[in-house]
Design goal:
Elements: H1 3-22, H2 28-40, H3 44-58, H4 64-77, H5 79-91, H6 98-108, H7 118-139
Helix pairs in contact: 1-4, 3-4, 4-7, 5-6, 6-7
Length: 141
């Protein structure tokens, strides 16, 4: 896939998720429109989060930084979906690999707070790099 296209899509998704997370009261009409769309397509953000996680873990991902940007907001605004994705990704592995994947997911959110501040996004991105390295290492052994 074209790296610049996927990076631009990730940036657009980040802005959408950030808007939903931080929407000021003056933007209420736009927020209501977004929420209405999400009610009509309730799995949209969850599907995008799963797609991003799978891309980072299972594909060659030269633009991991760009893909990481919307992931934190998607996790914070879709906690149930994130838990379900973690379970599905663990369940898809052989039994001896499941504990390693679960441990990697635990480390992914270590030190990450429930906000989208710059320092917190950077911490998540650092953790995602470690997550990807750890998962690739035990999957390839």
């Amino acid at each position: 896939h074209d790296i610049s296209v996927s990076s631009d899509c990730a940036t657009a998704l980040y802005h959408l998720v950030e808007f939903r997370f931080r929407a000021p009261k003056k933007e209420m009409v736009a927020l209501q429109s977004l929420n209405r769309h999400l009610q009509e397509h309730p799995d949209m953000f969850a599907s995008l989060l799963a797609l991003l996680l799978e891309a980072v873990v299972y594909e060659d991902c030269p633009n991991q930084w760009a893909l990481s940007r919307p992931m934190l907001g998607l996790i914070l605004t879709n906690e149930e979906a994130y838990e379900m994705i973690k379970t599905q990704m663990c369940d898809a592995l052989p039994p001896d690999r499941k504990p390693q994947m679960a441990a990697a997911f635990e480390k992914l959110m270590n030190g990450v707070q429930l906000n989208l501040e710059s320092r917190n996004r950077d911490k998540f991105t650092q953790n995602l790099t470690v997550f990807r390295t750890d998962v690739k290492q035990f999957l390839n052994n």
